[in-house]
UniProtKB/TrEMBL annotation, chains A, B:
Keywords tagged on the record: Lyase
Stated name of the protein: Ornithine cyclodeaminase
NCBIfam families, alphabetized: PRK07589.1
Record domain ApaG: where: 1-124
Enzyme class: lyase
Known EC number: 4.3.1.12
Molecular functions per Gene Ontology: ornithine cyclodeaminase activity
Amino acid sequence: MTAPKPSELAFVPFVSVENMMRLVNRIGVAEMLSGLAGYIEDDFRRWELFDKTPRVAAHSKEGVIELMPTSDGETYGFKYVNGHPKNTREGLQTVTAFGLLADVATGYPVLLTEMTLLTALRTAATSALVAKYLAPSGADTMALIGNGAQSEFQALAMQAICGVTKLRLYDIDPRATAKAMRNLAGRGFELTACKTAEEAILGAQIITTCTADKQYATILSDNMVGAGVHINAIGGDCPGKTELHPGILTRADVFVEYPPQTRIEGEIQQMPEDFPVTEFWQVVTGAAQGRRDARQITLFDGVGFATEDFSALRYVRDRMQGTGLYQELDLLADPDDPRDLFGMLTRATGVAAA
Amino acid sequence: MTAPKPSELAFVPFVSVENMMRLVNRIGVAEMLSGLAGYIEDDFRRWELFDKTPRVAAHSKEGVIELMPTSDGETYGFKYVNGHPKNTREGLQTVTAFGLLADVATGYPVLLTEMTLLTALRTAATSALVAKYLAPSGADTMALIGNGAQSEFQALAMQAICGVTKLRLYDIDPRATAKAMRNLAGRGFELTACKTAEEAILGAQIITTCTADKQYATILSDNMVGAGVHINAIGGDCPGKTELHPGILTRADVFVEYPPQTRIEGEIQQMPEDFPVTEFWQVVTGAAQGRRDARQITLFDGVGFATEDFSALRYVRDRMQGTGLYQELDLLADPDDPRDLFGMLTRATGVAAA
């Protein structure tokens, strides 16, 4: 007797990296970034519904492994994600991730998916969504400081959602800039490779910093930032890793996702516990003001929050339907009689288990 | 041009339910329970090494979804597990689970596996390990109250590790008892089906309670428990769910896995915050005393802790080598140049992403 086939209940749809790439390319990167931003915006709008908790982090000297759970009461989601800046030197990704959605009513998983690519997309979609609310009107030029794995996604999201057409790129490693220039060529940007961060920010209304070193760095010093810009600071995202001089923080109005997490991980870890911030979801709902005037410096201290992953997982669940771009994974034991797990096991070989 | 094959780095070994059943049956249930108990004992012995945190729980009116992470500094593990008592009535499992091991140095996952079966095995192995230290010497009779999915595993672990040969079974539903009697027949037990919990505990030196209702229940009342027994209480494992009359707790010496978690989830949630307990790992290392004398009532208030899952994951990782009982899952995006995630995406179809 051969092992019985697992029943339908035992299967969880799984989106592999290969299938995620197919899905993104089928939808189109720009459309997917806009779609993700829409889902993320919807979830910020119903922010108060969500179970929120700072991510659960296991830190080591090499990096961090995190679990980011949340729930809207009907659906539960979490992401596993690591952050290991030194990985790049060993030919590995700094950040890898996967995620899961489950049905709150039964606890059964309903989607497992790669999230390395999806995180890159949702991070960029979030940045652009925030910039849509906060950047000065008519902003068309962005400085892109840090030209690693996240940079092209940031550029395309800002183009699709905010109308950015001019990019000024800088990275401490010119090869990274060259790579980003190649990848972004022919996509409707006016591209300028810059030799310094100072040069990159010339004329830019939006400044994006997405560097990866795990250290207190000063990618932007105080005197570099003039009136009226929107800073999209997404590289400072764990304890001990920041990109901005504290002087910039005091001159800017700072917008964050979830203050208890950002105070640990974001740029504002450099500031006192009571440093004033605005929660971005309140800008979306209208409960708080976004940009006040043309001279204000707005700063998005983005660290990535669980609801954004939840939104991205919802998007994939909805958009993968009918595409066939997933496998059925035999992840859940599903005996005919739920109380008879042991019987399922022994019957699996047709002989009594030894 | 077809999509390039993911490289070796992108693959994570995945043990499906079907392969887990094959692995268990190949090793043999009894040998696997003993093997798991050994790994669990080893990890209790090096308890102080572990990153420990109470599980991260998302409660709803129907049940709970939990993440249980831990790390020994070299390897990181977590389990996803739900607990939905009402699931049984809908033909679903009360508890389903899966788990993951990752390399702390890189953050890369190294094993993904079903853990519904594995959790049943590790829970039973933990109970028997604890009973090995705490049950009265020569104990050969166990009352098994609650004859659901966990019961047969408890029986076989107590047989393999503690020498239990006589089982007295009781469940509020006689069909559950009949099922367990069938599954345990021919396995070297003297089996007695009992009509009441009172009848089940007659002559038993070990009393195991593994019932599943999410409510304050009194499976054992105070006058039922006489001197000298070891109580293995594993059904009370979330807020609002207990099995024992508080009077028993005051007469017993209570042993727990991780007090901050057990005070929330275990039988001792009924007691004051400072109710005295002994941490089981200290019994293993010799730092605390186990059973003192023949008349003492010892009580294991087991709720299941992340290190036990970690031990079970380590065991599977070690024992699956060479068996072929796993698939390679394309879970991690792995571009040739780690900074060029976008290039990997656009090259996946051989055409530029739209």
